[in-house]
Amino acid sequence: MSARNRGPGGILRRLWRAREAPAAEANDYKSIWNRLSSENAVDAIFTGATPEVFESSGEADAARLRPLAGPHSRVLNIGCGVGRVERYLAPFVAELWAVDISGEMIARARARLAEFPNVKLRELAIGEFLGGFESGTFDLVFSFLVLQHMEREDAFRYLDDAARVLRPGGALSVQFPNLLSPEYTAAFVEGARLPSRSAGRVRAYTEPEVRHFLETAGFRVESIGLSAGVRGDAEIYATARR
Amino acid sequence: MKARPAFLRKLGFLGGYKAVWNYHARRDARDAIFSGSTEESFEEAGRRDAERIRRLAGEDARVLNIGCGIGRVEKYLAPHVAEMHAVDISGEMISRARARLAGLPNVHLREVAPAEFLAAHPDGRFDLVFSLLVLQHLEKEDAFLYLEDARRVLRSGGTLFVQFPNLRSPEYTRSFRDVLRNRPRSPGRVRPYTEEELRHWMEMLAFEIVSLTIEAGARGDAEIYVTARKPEIA
User: Fold this and answer.
1) Residue A209: which of B145, B167, B185 has the nearest Cβ?
2) DSSP B140-193
3) Which of A70, A176, A188, A228 is geometrically suited to a Cys-Cys bond with A236, CB 3.0 to 4.6 A?
4) What is the number of structural domains in chain A?
5) pTM of the predicted structure, to 2 decimals
């Protein structure tokens, strides 16, 4: 609990918030990812990954982003986890901001990224989205393996907010799971049969859906393609410009 | 949907689909089923949908509707088929349907329990299963489970006829944006779909698509209608 929530004023504030947020939300993204982070942060981020696989995936994603950013770029990552990608991208950009809904993840990222003074980490409040950032101030916003864990409406709100914080012409790079791939088809059916569904479960998309979301959020889609998985179509990667 | 006190809305939401639709049925069942409809346009739409469905079913057909509400379509379809079965999650809707359809002896109504799906109906029982303006209000996983169960209760060669909102239409792009900021979001809110997603679901469920049409709305692309067949056993 933060200092400003203590004392009588804090109680009133929390009651006021409780009026706004239903009981179900206590169980929402924040508590899910704090719990997963405490259990096994690396596995929660990249299921089944060894430390080597985890690091090389971070390196590969950073390499994917480097053509979109230069040494003067201000970059933002939505959902940094323990800082998988930051470690390999930070040396090549001016400022690397990273947000996460989970304070537990942020604490681990802080330890992992201690040697990079240009990395700025921030734990988001529920419903905050990118509200803490000024409009038009980033050159690149990216998000991998994160938007897939939200209700579609929340994923869209992040895209909408990403468009706002990007400068005109700024780039967006995002990944979504492809429903049409064998992997996410199986995961969808398996998940549908579970007796209870986590708010953080994976939502799989179709490519036209991703394109439509990006265009509706005000982006011009530059490239959209499929990669990874047994058939090479498990993940949808999109690059778009504001 | 008209504005109403937030605390009432929340009480309803905590109970899932059943509470949502019981709440709407008590408040204004017709408007909840077909928002903005007058009595006349509501009946006219029911008549039109029944007309369309009749072309997929013969006079000896056993038909099932998933999510009948107050019996919008049943009233006009029941006289033309052998058995008209209908389920709904809301007991309040079912009791209104019972009153509305009282003169039709071949109508069989059932209030389903949460997560019951079509479990009350035996395998291979129906010639036609349809669902209009209903699956769109469920989590995608639940909509998929209904379709899966629809396949089970259909006979080989039986027909599925379903409607989904088209995400890419101006209407559903707008409605999707409109609910973004709602807190909490109703479990009964509309989920729009892409054509690709529905074609993929049909393939996953081993339905053969007979036709997929995109129609209605300002640009003629608001609703996706899928007619599909459960293949005959080879």
Assistant:
1) B167
2) HHHHHHHHHHHHHHEEEEEEEEEEEEBTTSHHHHHHHHHHTT-SSPPTTS---B
3) A176
4) 1
5) 0.88
